[in-house]
Amino acid sequence: MICKALHVGIFLVCLTGLADAAPQKEGAAQAESIYQKGLAALKRGDLNSARISFEHVLKLAPRSPEAHNSLGFVLFTQGDLDSAISHFRTALKLKADFPQAETSLASALAQKGDLQQAVPAAREAVRLAPKDAETHRTLGRVLSFAGDLEGATAELQQATELDPQRADLHDEVGSVLAQKSRLAEAAAEFSEALRLQPSDPHANLHLGVVCWQQKLLDEARNLLSKAVQLDPKSAQPHYYLARVLEDRGEPDEAIRELQVAVRLQPDLAEAHNQLGLLLQRAGDADGAITAFQQVVRLQPENPDAHNNLGLALIQSGQASNSIAQFEAALRLRPNDASYRGNLGIAYLQKSDFDGAIAQFRSALETAPDDATLHYNLGLALKLKDQLADATAEFQKAAHLDPNQADIHYTWGITYWQQGDFPHAADELRTALKIKPDYAEAHYTLGTVLKQQGNLPDAAAELREAIRLQPDFAGAHTTLAAVLRQIGDTAGAAAEARAGESIAKEKTNLQAATFATNSGKRLLAVGDLDGAISQFRNAIRMVPTYAPAHYQLGIAMSRKGEKKEAEQEFKKANDLDPRLTPPAE
User: Fold this and answer.
1) How does residue 321 score in pLDDT terms, banded at 50, 70 and 90?
2) What CA–CA distance (Å, rounded) separates 458 from 447?
3) DSSP state of 21
4) Selecting from 3.30.565.10, 1.10.8.60, 1.25.40.10, 3.20.20.70, what CATH number does the domain 1-163 have?
């Protein structure tokens, strides 16, 4: 929670009291005037002018500790830490009892990551100015960076006691308390910060995050929405607002906030990761792949990043490309059974059943009681027609996790393939007890019952499958056959027509998807006319296919046909609100 960047306000406090101590040697009046100009420029945020002024002062009065400290601050703010530290040290050589310079030095050393020297410098500042809230604040921050949260809390609380009207101090105490999971106390500090300064974006953000952690989602949403309004160019409020919206069951709104967050801060890996997960759940495999690729780029040593990218690639049918990602994850964490299991799934999707079986068996050596691994191994064995071995694995999986409907469903299909209809029906009924809305299981049970000659029960199961999934073409077609056997020719004809119509629609959708993907490949190599032809062909087959309209909009935009591009983007957005025009 506590911000790792050092606030400019620390140094401005140091500078505001320096006018009386400005250089008093030869040229004192001129040096004083230039020094004041530097302070004025600093307050305006004009760092270059301030730097020029302070450098000029040091030419006139090279032994002025205040000028060294002020120039050090400017250099620190500009990111030149080594030069800043050098000036702070010079200031302290010239004036040993200079708490502002000690505070500045401690902050610069901490920013550089040299905590071994930063902590003593901050403690010396407190020794020199024990009643100064800023020295305690700086020591508290440095201790928090060093991982001493107890010490940090004590120092920051001391700072608030010395200056209780400073909202930023209460906010920092709350941040450290939140890191220690003392959420109620943290919330109290953030609330006090907001009482003192209601428009503070940091306190709104921090209290919003604590409310989210406490599952107070309405309060969290209100606070984080306000933080976004107060600081719309900061990525963090958008990111945490997205997390709250996700938990509130508003994934589309969460996706929009995450898209803003990564646009504002492209190196915010956690936002890219969360965006990828939400897009994956929403069925946008391409968007998820793009997001996870960013995470891998930002965190190449993060095995979960490679694993997530691999799963997204599998979801989009790119099993071959996913293998390299799972292998990268396993190089980073060799004994992770879930990664190896996912690698097995990639081989399974490629129809490399031997490769899949080898990976699942290897994963089971690490996690022998993992029901999903036994199930996946059984599935691979089944697809290789090793039905007896597959049945044994399904039995193990069902024993380990008796409430996983897919295990019983696939086990039932395996019995059915072996001609064991009674056991097949038993397993399918078990699957339906666990998951009554399992349309595929109702359909398969109906098919088994049809083959057993139990036509009334078969018709009932098939009708239930259709009720649960009206566009289930196979269920309509099989029900037509059952009704024909029963003698209901009119009903059979109606179901047959429905099945044919749905099958045609699905065929068209598959063709439209293929055409759109072909168009995207042509677009990637710069063949605009070829891409446009493919996208229009997809729209001709399925006029309501939003991705084709969206990609056509991109192609027309690149061709300079802005008006038609806008029309296509609008059609895409009307069909799927998640598809918004890309930023210019």
Assistant:
1) very high
2) 7
3) G
4) 1.25.40.10
